[in-house]
Amino acid sequence: MTPSRLTCSQIQTGIKFPGEESLSPKPISCDAPPVSDPFQQAVADSMPILQRIRDGFGPYPTATQGALERLQSLPLPTPRSQRSTQSSHRPARTGDLAELRQAALACEKCPHLAASRTQVVFGVGHPQADLMFVSDAPSEEDDKQGEPFVDPAGHLLTKIIQTMGFSRDDIYIAHVVKCRLNMRPGDVGNRKPTKEEMSNCLPWLEKQIEAIQPLVIVALGATAVASLLGKTEPLGRIRGHWLEFHDIPVMPTYHPAYLLRNQALSEKRKVWEDMLKVLERLGKSVSEKQRQFFSTKN
Description:
By secondary structure, the protein is α/β, with parallel strands linked by helices. The protein is built from 13 helices and 8 strands. The protein has helices at 8-14, 38-54, 65-72, 94-105, 111-116, 140-145, 152-163, 195-212, 222-229, 235-238, 256-261, 265-281, 288-291; strands at 15-16, 62-63, 124-125, 131-135, 172-175, 216-220, 243-245, 248-253.
C-alpha cells in the first residue's frame, strides 16, 4: 500500500508550537509546485515550518503521533553509494556519448598530436557503466586499434576486471589524453603528457563522465590522478584512499603497467585491495576467495 503524502495542511494541523495561542501565527504558504519524489515533497512541505522557527515564531515544534507516523512512512532516498548496480536506474545517454565521440574524432587542439596519431582513442565500454577506469594516454597498440588498453598492460587490466566479476563490456575505459603522444625519433615506449596536452583534452573526458554518470571512477596511475584531481602527491601515499571528482568517488591506484614492471606480490595485493574497496562501494558481494587473492599469507 502506497503511503499518503504529507501535505502542508497536514503538517499545519499535526504540528503545534508551544505558546502558539499567545502569538499571532503566520499562515503557512505552499506556493512551491508539487514534487514527484515523496521524500523531496515532504522536505518542501516542511520548509514553511522551518522558516517560522528561524523567524522566531516558536523555538521548538511538537508533533502529534499521527504526523510522526505519516513522516516515518515515507520512503527515504537511497544514498548514491548504495544505489543499485543495475544500469536501468539512470536515463540512457548513449546518444550523447555517440555525438561526443564523433566530435572528439575530429579534434585538433594539439596540432602535433593530430599530425602524428593514427586515430583518436575515444573510449570503450558500456555507455551507462557504474564503474569507469581512467588512465593517462593511449599506447602504441591502442593507437593502432583505436581502443584503450589493448597492449600487455591492457591484458592485465582485463584480468583484474574479470576477477572483480565484470567484463570489459560492463565497465567503461577511457584515457585523459585521447591521442597517442608523439615521440622523438629513436625513443621507444611512452612519455607523460604535458600539462597543456592534458588541459586541452580534459574537457572530452569530463563530458564522457557526464554522459556515462558512473558511480565510481578508478584512476590508474599518477598522471590520471593529477589530471582528474590535481593531486601531485606520490601515488603510494594516496592510493587506496577515496577522493572525489565532481561528487563521484574516485579510487586512485597503480597503473597495470607498473605491475608489469614490478612483479612483487605485495604490489599486486595493494591494487587488489583497492579493487575490493571499489566492489564494496558499488554494493557488490565479495567472496572469501576474492578477499584472499594475492594475499602474502598464501
